[in-house]
Design a protein that fits this description.
With about 170 residues, the protein is an alpha+beta fold. The protein has a single domain, classed as Thiol Ester Dehydrase, Chain A (Roll). It contains two helices and seven strands. The strands form two sheets. It has a five-stranded antiparallel β-sheet. The longest helix has 29 residues. The chain is globular and about 50 Å long. About 25% of the residues are buried. The chain binds coenzyme A. The site of coenzyme A has 12 residues, from strand 3 and strand 6.
Length: about 170
C-alpha cells in the first residue's frame, strides 16, 4: 500500500448526469434523494481509488442544497478526497447545474461524505494519508480536520445526552 497519495490520484472531475423526468420531485425540480444517492456512488469511487480497499459510507455530515436543478439540466459533479485519518476518509463534492442550451452554470450543492475502508473480514483498515498539493487542497485538508473534531465532539455530546435519560 502507498503511504500517501495526492487528491488528484483519486478525484472524479466533471462527471455529467442529465436530469430526466424520472429524477424530479412533485415540485418539478431534481429530487434531492436521487442526487444524494448519485453523490454517494461517486464519492465511493474516490474513496476506493484512494484506499484500494472496499469502503462503506460512515456518515454524510453536510449536504447543502443551495439551489434547484431543473428537468433537462446537466449536473456537473466534482469529487475529491480532502483528508484521511487511520481508516476513514472525507470526500468533498461540488455540484453545478448547467442549462444544456445556454451553457449557463450555477453551483447548486456542496457535500462532505466520510467513508471507512474495510479489510477482508469487514474490519476498518488503514488507508494512505492525503498529500495536498494546491492552495485549495491545503485549505480543504485543514478544514476537514476541523470538521472531524466537530463530528467527534457532536457524537460524544449526543452519547452523554442519551445517557442522561433513564433506559427502560
Ligand atoms: C463505519 C463502520 C465500518 C465503523 O466501524 P466501527 O467498528 O464503529 O469502527 P471504529 O469505531 O473502530 O472506527 C473506525 C473509523 O470509522 C470512523 N467512524 C466511525 N463512525 C463514524 C461516523 N459516524 N462518522 C464518521 N466517521 C466514523 C472512526 O472515526 C474511525 O476513523 P479512523 O480509523 O480514521 O480514526 C461501521 O459503523 C459500519 O459498518 N457502519 C455501516 C456502514 C454502512 O453500512 N454504510 C452504508 C452502506 S455503504
Amino acid at each position: 500500500m502507498k503511504i500517501s497519495k495526492t487528491p488528484k490520484e483519486s478525484h472524479v472531475d466533471d462527471y455529467v448526469y442529465k436530469i430526466f423526468p424520472n429524477d424530479l420531485n412533485s415540485q418539478g425540480t431534481a429530487f434531492g434523494g436521487t442526487i444524494t444517492a448519485l453523490l454517494d456512488r461517486i464519492a465511493l469511487v474516490v474513496a476506493e481509488r484512494h484506499s484500494a480497499k472496499v469502503c462503506v459510507t460512515a456518515s454524510i455530515d453536510a449536504v447543502h442544497f443551495l439551489a434547484a436543478a431543473k428537468k433537462g439540466d446537466n449536473l456537473i459533479i466534482q469529487a475529491k478526497i480532502n483528508r484521511s485519518w487511520t481508516s476513514s476518509m472525507e470526500i468533498g463534492l461540488r455540484v453545478k447545474a448547467e442549462n444544456a442550451f445556454s451553457g449557463e452554470c450555477h453551483h447548486i450543492l456542496s457535500a462532505y461524505f466520510t467513508f471507512v475502508a474495510l479489510d477482508e473480514s469487514g474490519k476498518p483498515t488503514p488507508v494512505p494519508s492525503v498529500l495536498p498539493e494546491t492552495t485549495d487542497e491545503k485549505r480543504r485538508f485543514e478544514e476537514a480536520g476541523h470538521r472531524r473534531t466537530r463530528r467527534i465532539r457532536a457524537a460524544k455530546e449526543q452519547d452523554e445526552f442519551r445517557k442522561s435519560f433513564p433506559s427502560k
